[in-house]
Design goal:
By secondary structure, the chain is α/β, with parallel strands linked by helices. It is 23% helix and 25% strand.
């Protein structure tokens, strides 16, 4: 069988396996990498992309526990199998490694306008894959081993350009609903369809297993 297409521009995958340097990844970085010191992974070949290829194929080439941090911004909603991707991330992250994810909230009015979006996300989405001591509502786990601790979840309220006035108003809601975890849970149960949320930020840490 022919090798799957991976364009490793700087031979990074070989370096990860041989040396003990600290490596960070940004998954689905697109044409704007937020973390310049991270290895950018994307299916499309932009200038800032360091490894071009399918994210599942690329991560399978990385040895266990060799990555110190993984970032992702508006990428997880595009993948076919969130559980598989989380499992691969758990495998390659070192103990205490950072896993930071930003996704659209399911009430984001623009979420369903993009036909490439496959999975909606809410306040508890990553509680299904992590030990969650933040929220009162408990959910089942979808992995055999819960590899992460859920450290923080933030609701982000904003409007895209050029709607600056309404964006300023929404920042007031952001302050109110992020004041404590109880307020976040109250928002999602009772207010989310009255005041749509733009996106959610999840901060997780890899547990010692």
């Amino acid at each position: 069988m022919a090798d799957l297409f991976i364009n490793d521009k700087k031979n990074i995958l070989a370096r990860i396996g041989r040396y003990e340097e600290e490596i960070r990844l940004e998954l689905g970085c697109g044409n704007r990498k937020r973390h310049q010191d991270a290895v950018g992974i994307d299916m499309r070949d932009f200038a800032c992309v360091d490894i071009q290829g399918d994210v599942y194929d690329v991560l399978q080439r990385i040895p266990d526990r060799r990555i110190s941090a993984i970032y992702s911004y508006h990428f997880f909603e595009h993948v076919n199998d969130v559980a598989l991707l989380v499992r691969e991330i758990a495998r390659i992250l070192a103990d205490d490694g950072l896993f930071f994810v930003v996704v659209p909230h399911f009430t984001n009015p623009y979420y369903y306008a993009d036909c490439t979006h496959k999975t909606p996300f809410g306040l508890y989405s990553f509680s299904y894959f992590a030990r969650d001591t933040l929220f009162s509502r408990k959910v089942p786990h979808y992995q055999d081993s819960t590899a992460f601790n859920l450290e923080k979840v933030s609701l982000i309220f904003k409007s895209p350009r050029p709607f600056y006035t309404r964006c300023a108003l929404k920042k007031m809601f952001q302050l109110i609903f992020n004041c404590c975890n109880y307020a976040k849970e109250f928002y999602e149960e009772n207010c989310c369809y009255l005041i749509p949320c733009y996106e959610i930020q999840f901060t997780l840490k890899k547990r010692h297993l």
